[in-house]
Amino acid sequence: MGRHRKQPAITIRRSSVLALTGLVPAGLAAVTAASDVGSQAAAAVEQHLPGDDRDEQVGARPQAISETVAKTEYVEHAMAKQQVRPKPQVKSVALMDGRQRADLPVGPGGVPGIAVSAYQNAERILSEENPTCNMPWTLLAGIGRVESTHDYGGKADNDGNPLSPVYGPVLDGSLYGNNVIRDTDGGALDGLAGYDRAIGPMQFLPQTWTHYAADGNGDGIADPQNLFDAALTAGKYLCDGGLNMRDLAQQSRAILRYNNSMAYVANVMAYETSYATGTTPRPGDLPKI
Q1: Of 9, 43, 216, 282, which is least packed with CB atoms within 10 Å of its CB?
Q2: What is the 3-state composition of the chain as percent helix, strand, coil, each rounded to the nearest 5?
Q3: Are 233 and 204 in contact (CB under 8 A)?
Q4: Whole-structure pTM over 0.90, yes or no?
Q5: Vertex 286 angle, CA 281 and 289, to 5°
Q6: Contact of 54 with 121, CB cutoff 8 Å
Q7: What would the pLDDT profile of 174-188 be if each residue is shown by its tens digit?
């Protein structure tokens, strides 16, 4: 994350909707694909070895070793001939074991290490690209805490990808207090047709994500489900219009873009202060949103 940041072409990641479509999660899909490869290759081996003399085709025993070596060669040959390849994993789904960076300590207030890394990375990039914004990582952490509890307590892999995609409620008017927002992305980002819903650990509406999408980890992809990408995009969104986060009035205006509620602003600021000072917000500091 410390290398000089270039300005590569960015591909906006169309988020996976595995939880909605019933598709197999990426890690399991890879295992299934590998199993399929093995089955196809084994079938090819059986076709290569004629009749009841299959054992003899691989040489004399000690047959267990010879048979294994020969069948491995047949498998490799069959796979190359048929061009069988495992299915690629989907970036927005973490490894099946859900492991995290072991070298990243938990931050102030219990912020997961991977989330702290993402927020601080966004602060560093913004300090270079938009220094007048004066974005502290603790403000991004305040947003992340209120929106998704830092991706449900840092349930992300080594690269900041969540164990499962993060989505907000459907904005169809069925929940009291929620706006009604008709579909703006054809379901490409939020997996829904008809209405929109917020996406990723920083909870962007699809149209907002499309406008501000940023690549926080330098892989050339802007993925709303990725902590590094989402944190940087949130920073860009808050800083837009020349706002200065050191000015409390301007900071409040920026946070209101997320949720037009002063109770929401108070919650975010309370968490920001707690992360900056190492204190814990009191119940009275957190009005109901």
Answers
A1: 9
A2: 50, 5, 45
A3: yes
A4: no
A5: 150
A6: no
A7: 888 778 999 998 899
